[in-house]
Protein: UDP-N-acetylglucosamine 2-epimerase (non-hydrolyzing)
Organism: Fervidicola ferrireducens
Amino acid sequence: MERIKVLSVFGTRPEAVKMAPLVQELKKSNYIDCKVAVTAQHRQMLDQVLSLFDVKPDYDLDIMEERQSLFDITVKALSGLRDVLNEVRPDLVLVHGDTTTTFAGALASFYMHIKVGHVEAGLRTHNKWLPFPEEMNRKLTGALADLHFAPTMTAKENLIKEGVDPESIFVTGNTVIDALRTTVKRDYVFKQPVLNALDYEKNRVILVTAHRRENLGKPLEDICRGLRDVVERNPDVILVYPVHLNPAVRDTAYGILKDNERIILLPPLDTDELHNLMARCYMVMTDSGGLQEEAPSLGKPVLVLRAETERPEAVKAGTVKVIGTARENVLKEAEVLLKDKSEYTRMANAVNPYGDGFASRRIVESILYHFGLSDKRPEEFRPEKKTCWLKNEPSTKGKDGFYKRG
């Protein structure tokens, strides 16, 4: 029997983290011929994830250049993927989320009359400028896609409101939760020595990431000043901030946050480092979309440093709170979780709406169903209970702080 040719296309570290478990699951299937193409829209950070998950691309466009623009990425990705699609002639192209690579991959496939499957489909802020350009990348990809792998029922409902055929939508959960099952380990040893030296029991470690395009300039300056206020007012708090390589981010973060011994500024962490730090920290403050999904699976409250989120399910579930970027809000909302034990516990123990670790399996089953190799439509993912990523969730806290509860 001729196998289904599936080409997975991605280009950034966040995409790679979420697509790697799916690539591994695709390769397990006897009915699928799985190929991988990367644009390397991000180079160094992408390579680390590929190595971590042992994913070897069949095609590497290597398009990254210093200070590249959205125009540069789009044109080079579109042109390069044209050549790859001509060679592979896949039955289905899988793209993920909302990057420029995602949109270019969907558009190139459309031009060549190749079916598109959109992983993590249906997230919306309903504001085309927030996040920019991600919101429109995601919507335009959705308009081109033939199969929509929505992580949640809310995402499915968004797609239906936009006129997408419900039969083409499969609710799978988010593949990033699948990735955590691989990366998070109790006996993990950090490559960054300072992270091994931290006493996660004595101190409350706050993990921070902030780098989104719409936060550059004054919003990021206000965030950093608020973070410094949090540390200065709470002597048991240690702030760990892996700073993005973007010079506009680094100049602001180091300019405001350096010279405080309880603020640790690091280069971007490898994915396994970040996940294991997240598992041991007290809480997360971030403008990242992915961390809003990951941290709740590890029992960590998340304060979102943005005005809006395309992940309202987490807000509704109580695992995430959107606090904006104002200096006074950063301090106020952080201190709620530092001082109000009941509020911390409520957020830490809320049910994560994003997955149970088996999204990749559902996506593969959905592909087989669509192509007539299975007569059973996969059951939709529905969050029902709190999950933990190691078999026995500890009831006591150790110095390493692993799965520390309030």
User: Anything to note?
Assistant: The first helix runs from residue 13 to 28.
